[in-house]
């Protein structure tokens, strides 16, 4: 949990003559918590950018309320940002913070429970007023009543020092106070030896039309940094060396950004214009925002009147030869169900991105969950199969987006991509891919230009024998006029057909087309290293989506404890890889952790008759690696005990 | 009329879309725009009830479309659900018989991404005004380049006879045995309220009037809405007889001709004059000064006049204006979208590598 190396590696003399030491750490988890108006997300993002450019590996967990501004100083208004960074490869934003920065009593009260004893707690002393304490039910001031003795508490007057630093800025008190997040960022930047130029450039760029605001923020940022350097309150600063990474060019990227760039790249690699039909919804809106910036790439974004119009317009665009995309979350995917069924029936390419959030109904708009899997699989009337895929990390959203487009274009089908709130807003370093290394999608796009029937007619449902995809003939193509729609189609001609045998055939053919996608998938990767005694794992853990990081981190812990465990993580949820059943049957026990009530486990049990053990949690937050490791350890030890018993 | 549809920049030079169109034209020769009504028909049996008003409209459209000089492959007809929405199957163009109420949204995506096409929506009173009401008003306000034909028979036909959003108050149907309680929409008022740039009304059986309104609608740049009164001879037979009857028709119909005084009825006995609060009212022509009679101006930018015109008629169809209520010019959504793409590409040409790298990268050396 805590750093492995706390030996001072250097000392330096602060300007006041006070000697400060530098301690080297291998990793640290910082949580910034404040009021939703305090700018904690911005502060966290800046610290992340500084950390990324320094070369640490990192993973982030923004956590904020659905209300834009809940009443100031209250528990519902607390917003936090957790950042885990290290000198080595890490997989999660950290189970618990090593450092908690609490900008007010509400932030302290909401987050202290997660800070392990001995952890560093930095609070803004100025905000611990009787009024603010009363708002969250503190009878006495925790800074004075001894209740914080288990932690290394540093009480700093962040607000008043910010005001002092900006006394000559010409700004009023209220405006000056807003810069306290930058003061805090400056202090943390000193504490963790972060580069500062990027933040100064960012502030200049962001407030280029309000130079006085830019100057104030920069002044507060520098004041915080200098305060760290001179104060006796912080005797130690920390160094976390850059993580060894494969050579190459890197950037920091969030899941929603990576997804958006993947869609643009898919457009460029297929040669098709992108058409996004979307209705604003948390946490998917950032994809609409991002794509709307990239018009130069032939990307059209259409903010529709509702979720249904968003997907319907994308279907219309696909009929015209564009790559139609729609993005949504939560209840939005329910609203789109009927139109997705139309895309199944008309067999047009369509990419549906569902950034899952807590449900049902409006649920938890800003919290993560994996509870739309069964809806993605089955949430349409009739037999309406479609491919479902999921990214495993923020950066992986890029590759998943391209894969969704590949399948949609190759097989002429709607594809649902299941991201989630944690992937969408979480960030990590990402190796910038070489364009030439990206999949070439031009082969997936062969518009039909010539009649395919024996009598010189065009048969819009005469399928490709290999993929079972139907021809895609777009308006404007002479001699290929045809009509499609939601009524059952006659095989080959696509005319309306109510024929019983034809319907049976078409239902099975649509299913066979989707099932056949499995043939295009690579073999399932199983991470199954031998144990220290050359022992093979008896237990496998299988997951999908954003649980990859916590499951991976849990597996590392298990292996570090001398046990063996195999990890399987699914990109393709429908169809599943052809070799999956055989793989699962190799293990005595299969554990499936999910942020729902066991949806993948249900599918696996039904499909493969394997006794999958479901481990679930729906708290709106990612799993903690330590909890998963405990579950796995218990399962492994049980399996071992049973195995030994049978041998006797 | 042999003008080809506008060839806009699709925003993706060298896209397979252009290649497909070019390849097909090479195969077939040049784009065929000299067409006849029979060229517009498909081999599909028309399956409306015998005597349905939809047949008349289909024939009128098939006869008139070739005169627009647009190749069949450049036309797309998108429909929703309902009797009228079977229309695309009978037209030898591209078509999509989609889902209930969503045709305007589907057509918006198509027209916005393919401004080179002539996109039509065929819908009915239930499809457009009930389940699809939201899409209709938003499509109209955006002014996407679409022509919407709204077949209004004031009844749900395909579901066998429930009242519709245009049925009159008190209408007795299967779902309203004691009479409907709903106040009906006036589709023309609704469209003008949504600031539609082209709104017209025509009668299924009036081939000349229908064709005239359809032609103007098709030539209009932006969203055109044409309400077509259509008789459902099974569930709402005779709904428009008041206006069709040679005796009563002229008494209760107000023909709209741009630039002409609004005089109607036998011997021009009735006319339209200004009323207080910006409204219009019916007067007896011989009771008013000629200068008081309103001269129809379909090009007024302010929609108040066209709206006032639409309010002359009552739910029992007396004083129903027929023709083009409003036809004004405004930039179209698809053209403006294409323009934004063009401007973006000019300001900062697409560079995928630069996009993926973003503004803050760092390099790890081997």
Question: How are the SSEs placed, and which strands pair?
Answer:
The complex is a heterodimer of chains A (648) and B (366).
Chain A: E1 8-13, E2 19-25, E3 27-35, H1 40-54, E4 57-63, E5 78-86, E6 99-102, H2 105-111, E7 120-124, H3 130-135, E8 152-156, H4 158-165, H5 173-177, H6 180-191, H7 197-206, H8 211-230, E9 236-240, E10 248-254, H9 255-270, E11 274-278, H10 285-291, E12 299-303, H11 307-319, E13 323-328, H12 331-335, H13 337-346, E14 350-356, H14 373-378, E15 388-389, H15 396-411, E16 414-420, H16 421-425, E17 427-431, E18 483-485, H17 500-515, E19 526-527, E20 539-544, H18 548-560, E21 566-570, E22 572-574, H19 580-585, E23 589-594, H20 599-608, E24 612-616, H21 625-647
Parallel strand pairs in A: 2-9, 3-6, 6-7, 7-8, 11-12, 11-13, 13-14, 14-16, 15-16, 20-21, 20-23, 23-24
Antiparallel strand pairs in A: 1-2, 3-5, 4-5, 10-17, 15-22, 19-21
Helix pairs in contact in A: 1-6, 6-8, 7-8, 9-10, 9-15, 11-13, 18-21
Chain B: H1 16-28, H2 53-64, E1 75-79, E2 94-97, H3 103-113, E3 118-124, H4 125-131, H5 133-142, E4 146-152, H6 187-193, E5 198-203, H7 207-219, E6 224-229, H8 241-244, H9 249-252, E7 253-256, E8 263-264, E9 270-274, E10 280-284, H10 304-310, E11 320-327, H11 333-347, H12 352-357, E12 361-364
Parallel strand pairs in B: 1-2, 1-3, 3-4, 4-6, 5-6, 7-11
Antiparallel strand pairs in B: 5-11, 8-9, 9-10
What's the quick description here?
The complex is a heterodimer of chains A (648) and B (366). Chain A is of the alpha/beta class. A seven-stranded mixed β-sheet of chain A has the order 12-11-13-14-16-15-22. Chain A has a six-stranded mixed β-sheet with strand order 4-5-3-6-7-8, sandwiched between helices. A five-stranded mixed β-sheet of chain A has the order 19-21-20-23-24, with helices on both faces.
């Amino acid at each position: 949990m805590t750093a492995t190396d706390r030996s001072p590696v250097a000392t330096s003399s602060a300007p006041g003559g006070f000697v400060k030491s530098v301690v080297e750490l291998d990793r640290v988890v910082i949580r910034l918590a404040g009021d939703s108006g305090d700018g904690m997300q911005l502060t966290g993002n800046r610290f992340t950018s500084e950390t990324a450019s320094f070369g640490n590996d990192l993973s982030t967990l923004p956590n904020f309320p659905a209300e834009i501004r809940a009443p100031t100083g209250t528990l519902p208004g607390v917003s936090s940002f957790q950042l885990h960074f290290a000198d080595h490869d890490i997989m999660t934003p950290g189970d618990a913070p090593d450092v908690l920065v609490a900008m007010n009593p509400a932030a302290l009260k909401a987050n202290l429970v997660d800070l392990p004893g001995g952890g560093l707690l930095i609070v803004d002393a100025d905000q611990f007023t009787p009024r603010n304490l009363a708002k969250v039910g503190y009878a006495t001031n925790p800074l004075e009543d001894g209740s914080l003795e288990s932690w290394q508490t540093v009480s700093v007057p962040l607000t008043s020092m910010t005001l002092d630093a900006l006394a000559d800025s010409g700004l009023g008190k209220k405006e000056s106070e807003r810069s306290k997040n930058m003061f805090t960022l400056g202090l943390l930047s000193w504490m963790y030896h972060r580069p500062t130029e990027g933040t100064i450039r960012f502030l200049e760029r962001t407030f280029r039309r309000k130079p006085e605001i830019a100057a104030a923020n920069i002044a507060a940022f520098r004041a915080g940094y200098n305060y760290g350097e001179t104060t006796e309150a912080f005797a130690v600063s920390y160094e976390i060396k850059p993580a060894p990474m494969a050579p190459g060019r890197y950037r920091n990227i969030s899941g929603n950004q990576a997804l958006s760039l993947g869609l643009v790249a898919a457009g460029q690699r297929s040669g098709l214009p992108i058409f996004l039909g979307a209705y604003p919804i948390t946490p998917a809106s950032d994809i609409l925002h991002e794509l709307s910036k990239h018009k130069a790439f032939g990307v059209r974004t259409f903010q529709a009147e509702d979720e249904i119009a968003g997907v319907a317009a994308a279907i219309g665009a696909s009929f015209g030869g564009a790559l139609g995309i729609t993005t949504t979350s939560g209840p939005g995917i329910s609203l789109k169900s009927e139109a997705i069924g139309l895309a199944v029936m008309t067999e047009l390419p369509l990419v549906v991105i569902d950034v899952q959030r807590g449900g049902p109904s409006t649920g938890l708009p800003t919290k993560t969950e994996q509870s739309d899997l069964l809806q993605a699989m089955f949430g349409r009337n009739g037999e309406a199969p479609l491919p479902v895929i999921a990214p495993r990390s923020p950066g992986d959203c890029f590759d998943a987006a391209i894969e969704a487009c590949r399948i949609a274009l190759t097989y002429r089908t709607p594809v649902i991509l299941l991201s989630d709130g944690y992937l969408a807003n979480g960030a990590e370093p990402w190796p910038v891919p070489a364009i030439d290394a990206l999949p070439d999608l031009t082969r997936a796009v062969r518009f039909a230009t010539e009649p395919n029937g024996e009598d010189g007619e065009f048969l819009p449902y005469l399928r490709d024998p290999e993929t079972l995809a139907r021809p895609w003939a777009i308006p404007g193509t002479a001699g290929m006029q045809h009509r499609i729609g939601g009524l059952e189609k006659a095989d080959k001609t696509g005319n309306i057909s109510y024929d019983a045998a034809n319907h049976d055939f078409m239902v099975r053919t649509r299913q066979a087309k989707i099932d056949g996608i499995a043939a295009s998938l690579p073999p399932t990767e199983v991470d199954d290293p031998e144990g220290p005694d050359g022992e093979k794992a008896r237990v496998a853990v299988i997951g999908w989506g954003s649980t990859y990081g916590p499951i991976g981190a849990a597996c590392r812990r298990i292996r570090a404890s001398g046990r063996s465990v195999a990890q399987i993580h699914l990109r393709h949820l429908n169809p599943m890889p052809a070799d999956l059943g055989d793989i699962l049957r190799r293990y005595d026990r299969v554990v499936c952790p999910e942020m729902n009530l066991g949806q993948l486990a249900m599918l696996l049990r039904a499909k493969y008759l394997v006794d999958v053990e479901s481990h679930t949690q729906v708290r709106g937050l990612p799993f903690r690696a330590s909890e998963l490791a405990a579950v796995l350890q218990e399962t492994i030890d049980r399996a071992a005990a049973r195995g030994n018993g049978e041998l006797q | 009329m042999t003008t080809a549809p506008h060839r806009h920049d699709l925003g993706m030079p060298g896209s397979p879309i252009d290649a497909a169109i070019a390849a097909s034209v090479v195969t077939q020769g040049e784009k065929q725009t000299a067409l006849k009504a029979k060229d517009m028909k498909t081999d599909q049996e028309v399956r409306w009830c015998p005597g349905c008003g939809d047949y008349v409209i289909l024939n009128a459209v098939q006869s008139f479309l070739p005169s627009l000089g647009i190749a069949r492959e450049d036309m797309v007809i998108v429909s929703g659900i309902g009797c009228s929405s079977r229309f695309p199957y009978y037209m030898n163009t591209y078509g999509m018989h989609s889902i209930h109420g969503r045709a305007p949204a589907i057509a918006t995506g198509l027209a916005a991404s393919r401004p080179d096409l002539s996109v039509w929506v065929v819908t009915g009173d239930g499809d457009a005004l009930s389940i699809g009401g939201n899409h209709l008003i938003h499509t109209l306000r955006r002014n996407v380049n679409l022509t919407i034909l709204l077949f209004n028979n004031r009844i749900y036909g395909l579901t066998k006879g429930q009242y519709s959003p245009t049925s009159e108050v008190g209408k007795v149907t299967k779902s309203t045995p004691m009479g409907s309680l709903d106040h009906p929409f006036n589709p023309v008022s609704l469209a003008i309220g949504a600031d539609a740039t082209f709104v017209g009304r025509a009668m299924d059986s009036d081939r000349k009037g229908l064709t005239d309104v359809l032609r103007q609608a098709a030539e209009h740049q932006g969203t055109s809405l044409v309400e077509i009164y259509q008789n459902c001879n099974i569930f709402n037979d005779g709904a428009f007889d008041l206006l069709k009857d040679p005796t009563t028709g002229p008494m209760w119909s107000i023909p709209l001709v741009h630039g002409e005084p609004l005089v109607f009825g036998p011997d021009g006995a009735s006319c339209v004059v200004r009323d207080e609060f910006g409204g219009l009212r019916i007067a007896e022509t011989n009771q008013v000064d000629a200068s008081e009679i309103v001269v129809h101006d379909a090009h007024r930018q302010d929609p108040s006049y066209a709206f006032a015109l639409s309010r002359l008629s009552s739910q029992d169809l007396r004083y129903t204006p027929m023709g083009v209520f409003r036809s004004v010019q405004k930039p179209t959504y698809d053209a403006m979208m294409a323009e934004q793409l063009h401007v973006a590409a000019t300001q900062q040409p697409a560079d995928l590598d630069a996009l993926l790298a973003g503004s803050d990268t760092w390099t790890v050396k081997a």
